Amino acid sequence: MKFTQEHEEIRRTTRNFIEKEVNPYVDEWENAGIFPAHELFKKMGDLGLLGISKPESVGGMGLDYSYELVAAEELGVAHCGGVPLAIGVQTNMATPALARFADKSLQQEFLAPAIAGDLVASIAVSETGAGSDVAGMKTAARKDGDDYIINGSKMWITTSTQADFFCLLANTSEGKPHSNKSLIVVPANTPGITLSEPLNKLGMRSSDTAQVFFDDVRVPQRYRIGGEGAGFMMQMIQFQEERLWGAANTLKALERVVGETITYCRERHTFGQPLIDNQVIHFRMAELQTEIEALRALTYQACETYIEGKDVTKLASMAKLKGGRLAREVSDACLQYWGGMGFMWDNVASRSYRDSRLASIGGGADEIMLGIICKYMNILPAKRRS
Ligand SMILES: Cc1cc2nc3c(=O)[nH]c(=O)nc-3n(C[C@H](O)[C@H](O)[C@H](O)COP(=O)(O)OP(=O)(O)OC[C@H]3O[C@@H](n4cnc5c(N)ncnc54)[C@H](O)[C@@H]3O)c2cc1C
Description:
48% of the residues are buried. A hairpin with a 2-residue loop joins strand 2 (140-144) and strand 3 (147-158). The mean pLDDT is 97. The chain is 49% helix and 15% strand. It has twelve helices and ten strands. The strands form three sheets. It has a four-stranded mixed β-sheet. A four-stranded antiparallel β-sheet has the order 2-3-7-6, covered by helices on one side. A two-stranded antiparallel sheet has the order 9-10.
């Protein structure tokens, strides 16, 4: 991956933004269970950071995905996972399909203001009975004149208590589960939408998450993204950016945990010497840093493949899998060397341990990534019919 002056500028802008506008407030937001999405996204929109790889016609920078990748990586300098997660939802999870498949008028109505930071977006795919098994979801959008009438519910929806619109996956016909779904933009203030209380989570505390209920929610059919019945396919494509973003966002976050752990282990003495002088500890730090560099190489390779327009599914799944597993390994290993301090709630390794646990579950669990990789390796057994 060759980085240009422009990449470095995006890196610097993102890092400055996080250091000035996010890190001083992280502890407050973690305690409150929410961060001010509208205020923060407007500032990001003004800097252009919400539309790096989106078309210029809707206010984006029109750059390729490598520029998005450096921003995702740099967001990892945040002192929590929750705020970067919500930013990632806005830029790389709820809006890629809008940018790629929606018609111009829908893009002007929802994507352009999302890029400007005027509208907050959520992605609404998972349901209580269908997370990994996306095809098994039940929320339905029935045609009525020029409208859809939506009934059902979506579970664990990030930033939903602040969202202005949902990018919703719904069944729009009775047909086969891979060809009966559509992606529909649903404004959050449409009558019939209600939310649960914010969900009480293990980690990602500064990001608000709730269940969203749709009870006879009426939206015009022109709010559908792309063709009817193509929603599952579009969501699978949209997932690739989510997974690449997730892997890239892990890199600096983990390096920060390793770096802070090294600093602590230099200062902390046991048995007359700094902790870091124990070979088991300095070797472990070297090992973890090596693993992070390996993840970086895999993520960059996946990104290059994506930019070249080739099928990135296998590499993106590998990067997502490796990122989730490494995040658990790094935060657990580092927490150990902080001793009792590592068990404290606000400790850097402790927060990483809690926040990063999501990476092996959300956006496709590790086992789902393994299944995809097996499919590409041609070793996934065919499903038996009973
Ligand atoms: C904090 C948070 C934020 C989220 N944000 C969003 C969001 O904004 N939008 C959204 O749509 N969703 C969101 N999700 C949902 C998330 O994507 C799902 O939780 C995830 O896809 C897993 O689905 P599930 O929880 O239903 O687990 P299940 O599908 O019930 O699976 C449970 C576990 O079983 C294992 N498993 C599943 N299938 C297989 C298999 N075939 N073989 C072997 N093992 C298997 C996996 O280990 C998996 O973790 C969020 C979740 C959380 C916790």
